[in-house]
Design brief:
There is one protein chain. The chain has about 60 residues and is α+β, with helices and mostly antiparallel strands. The chain has a domain of about 35 residues. It contains one helix and three strands. It has a three-stranded antiparallel β-sheet, with no helix packed on it. Strand 2 and strand 3 form a beta hairpin. The chain is rod-shaped, with a radius of gyration of 22 Å.
């Protein structure tokens, strides 16, 4: 029973590697800014996540 489990894990790992199921890595991003204008100073921060051509960004 134990040998069958090991063989199935090896076959499943080879199948995932062969079809590219691991995908592209997720890339976190972060940005911060500080500015000075005629009405005073201001700041902003933002965080985001990018995977392939899709990106999600939240800024405050």
């Amino acid at each position: 029973m134990r040998i069958l489990r090991v063989v199935l894990l090896i076959v499943a790992g080879a199948a995932l590697t062969g079809c590219g199921a691991d995908g592209e890595p997720i890339q976190p991003t972060m940005a911060a800014s500080v500015g000075v204008g005629s009405s005073g100073t201001y700041g902003g921060v933002g965080v985001g996540v990018r995977r392939g051509g899709l990106g999600v960004y939240l800024g405050l």
